[in-house]
Amino acid sequence: MTQPATAAQKQAPTSAAKSAGDQESSRRPGLRWDVRSLSLLGVLAVLVAVGGITAPDQFLAWSNLQLVLTQASVIGVVTVGMTFVITSGGIDLSVGAMVALASVWATTVATQEFGFAGILFTAVIVGVGCGLVNGLLIAYGRMVPFIATLAMLASARGLALQITDGSTQVVTVGSVLDLGARDAYILGIPPLVLIFAAVTVIGWLLLNRTTFGRRTVAVGGNAEAARLAGIDVRRQRLYLYLLSGLCCGIAAFMLIVLSGSGQNTNGNLYELDAIAAAIIGGTLLSGGRGTIIGSVLGVLVFTTITNIFALNNLETAVQQIAKGAIIVAAVLVQRRSMRGGDA
Length: 343
Known about the structure:
Elements: H1 7-54, H2 56-59, H3 62-87, H4 95-105, H5 109-112, H6 115-140, H7 145-164, E1 169-170, H8 174-178, H9 191-208, H10 211-221, H11 223-228, H12 233-259, E2 261-262, H13 270-281, H14 292-311, H15 316-342
Antiparallel strand pairs: 1-2
Helix pairs in contact: 1-14, 3-9, 3-10, 3-12, 3-13, 3-14, 4-6, 4-7, 4-12, 6-7, 6-12, 9-10, 10-12, 13-14, 13-15
């Protein structure tokens, strides 16, 4: 006698089909991100070709390539932290101000008396402290990330101005200045570029190969579903803003090495550059998907554009227009690919 099918048996084909559909959809986004990364590499190759044609003697010189990579390093480290925050569905408008505050606090006369270690420790701890405040306000104070980080932007800028009184604080610690000298280059590669590379590798591993990364993506994709799955969403968000602050502290130290000083104007518009680089790299502004490699390529694209414009003596206004056009194009492509994935 044939037994009636149970509810579980009836649902089995549906569950299997859903599972297969989920697997297919998970492969398609991954493919899109790979294609986008390859596209950015193509854009970067075109920019290199343009630079080589318009200013061959200057652009293709090894010293200029070193300069491009060094300039990309500082904002690149900030962008790695920003990528994590955006992937979780948040935003951090205070990264530039945190870099400024960390750089001036780490270059005060009192701090410089502790030498290299004192400057590095102060820069990092100030960045982490600012990230902690952001995280507590957003995760446990239930403030909107836009408002909380906007308040931090204003506060950190104001405190940086108060510390410096509008003046430049010159670094006198030789070991810090030596890190930016050509004698410190390793196989022709500036130490700051190596720091950027290390942060990129660690960030990629953290996002793609750890539970922390999977939780970040889950929170950005659907915070309520993540909570029901057992993820402490508030704690995860706190960690993410701490990570962003840590990256800002490291970037502040790198900027001190690069400029040999601390100024309240440091990190100006870093928040916009970091967000733009992450977006054109393929990180969804709405959260749920992020790519460290894409963000790094986005930083390199913007830095290369800036370098080409500078070498050809083009106006800054034209450069900003070009950046804006690239951002708009990237968002339109991203929305189109999302619609294609949903079809």
